[in-house]
Every structure is written in C-alpha cells, then in structure tokens.
Amino acid sequence: MAEEQNTCDGCEAESCEDCPSALENPFAKMQDDTHIRKVIGVVSGKGGVGKSMVTSLLASKMNREGYKVGVLDTDATGPSIPRMIGVAENLKPGSEETIIPAHNDAGVKIMSVDLILPDATEPVIWRGPVISGVIRQFWCDTHWGDIDIMFIDMPPGTSDVALTVFQNLPVDGIVVVASPQDLVETIATKAIKMADEMDIPVVGLVENMSYITCPDCGAEIKVFGESKLEQIAETYGIGTFVRMPIDPKLSVAADNSGLGQVEVEAIAPLIDTFEGML
User: Fold this and answer.
1) How far apart, in whole angstroms, are the C-alpha atoms of residue 189 and residue 44?
2) Domains along the chain?
3) 41 three-state secondary structure
C-alpha cells in the first residue's frame, strides 16, 4: 500500500468528475489535507468477543507511543467506540463538504454513527447501501488530517460492511479477534479466509477471554477450555498472536469511557507489528 492514501495526489484530471479513479471508486476522493499512512481493520466472526474493546486498546496504546491515530467505527448498528474510548466532545460543525471528527482527551480522532444519533439508545434501522454511504462519508468527507495509523472497527461477520471496507478502502492488514470456544474459532476462520480471498494480510490474531488469573495462587484458569490460538495461527501463517485474560477492570473501564487510560501488556506484540509497518 502507498504511504499516503489520498489517491488524488498527482492526478492529471481537470476535475473530479473526469478522474477515472474517482469514477471507478467513490471512496477514492478524500479531503485534500488528509494523509493516512496505514489502515488496520479489526474484525471478528461473531459479536460479543471484545472486538471494539481491542480496537480501543490498540488505538490508545499507539497514541501513547506518540503516533497520530484515528478510529473509524463502521459498526453502524452497534457503535460503541465513543463510549469505550471516551469522547471529549461531539462532532464540531464543518462545512457542506467537510466533517470534523470527534476526539478523546488524548487526541485520538473518532468517527462513529453514535456521534450523529440524537440519542445513544436510538436504533439504527438502515439497509446495507445506506450504511455503505455513511461509511463513504466518514472516510471521504472527514477532515482527518495527518494520521499515522487508522483503525477500522468492523461489525461482526462477513456481510455488506466488510465487503464495502475491504473492496474500497486501502486496508493494509486486519486483526482478527476471537474467543477460545471451538464454535467461535470456526467462525473466526471465516473472517481469516475472507481476508485471504480479498488479498488482505492478517497481521494479528487476538484470543480474548483466554483465561482468568486466580487471585490466590496466580494460576491461569481456562474458563472456556484449552487455547487453540497457536494452532490457528500456524495453520494460516499469522505471525503475531496474543492471548488476553478475562479482566474485570477492562469491563469497568469500558463502561466508564476509560479504556484510553488502561495498559494491557498482552497487546505489546501487536504494537510492535504496527510500528514495524510504519
């Protein structure tokens, strides 16, 4: 992938209407001062495995490491990033052609359907094409500025939104989040295989809720059975894989918009992988 994802750089067309790239891909035209170096999708085969929590932790850690970070929440029917990561303010008024993203206290830029709803409890009853149109606006019309790494929090599964993102956005790699149960592992491999079919590398695998640590003896208690993480990683050639424990402090932090301040040592190998890509 190119270092800068604004595909209008160097275009010789007299106008966007005449640009072959823009005509072929409606996601190609971004704001003039938007430059995004790397794009990482965070996906899961099913819901409830902690995908948005992992996205928030990864984005916040990269931000603390000194990188300029954005998060695009494409889970329109279940947006949770703003609440988890802690949005300092809502969307600012932009212009007719520009959206100003929200951000948290640390400066992570965020776009999410949750930020445009009149009420957080309002259901999103949209068909696939409408959601795809919103994602296009969030990607193309947002004044992102300079971003070192953009995390895209994807809805669970391999349906319309995943296709929209994989086919139209310059995704440099994905991180797959799963839990240890056999069924979830089977579902997770669907996301891995979809990425392979779309020629997008899986740069990391996260087994969330892998174990709980006994408060008395420190032993790892595998609530959902033995991990098959290494087996899956070896089968699909995934070099970076991590196991995250069940930790009540993470749930409390997510409910109180505090994931941006939580340090989780387990994700360090993923951070190293991202830094190696930049």
Assistant:
1) 9
2) 33-277 (3.40.50.300)
3) strand
Cα separation of 136 and 99, whole Å? 12
Mean pLDDT of 199-209: 95
Q: What is the CA angle 176-26-102, rounded to 5? A: 60
Distance CA 30, CA 32 (A): 6
Token digits of residue 168: 């139209």
Q: Is 155 exposed, middle or buried (0-12, 13-18, 19+ CB in 10 A)?
A: buried
Q: What percent of the chain has pLDDT over 70?
A: 85
pLDDT above 50 (res 180): yes
Are 78 and 155 contacting, i.e. CB atoms less than 8 angstroms apart?
yes
Please state, in angstroms and rounded to a whole number, the distance separating the CA atoms of residues 171 and 165.
8
∠ CA 50-51-57, nearest 5°, is 90
Find, among 165, 190, 209, the residue nearest to 48 by Cα: 209
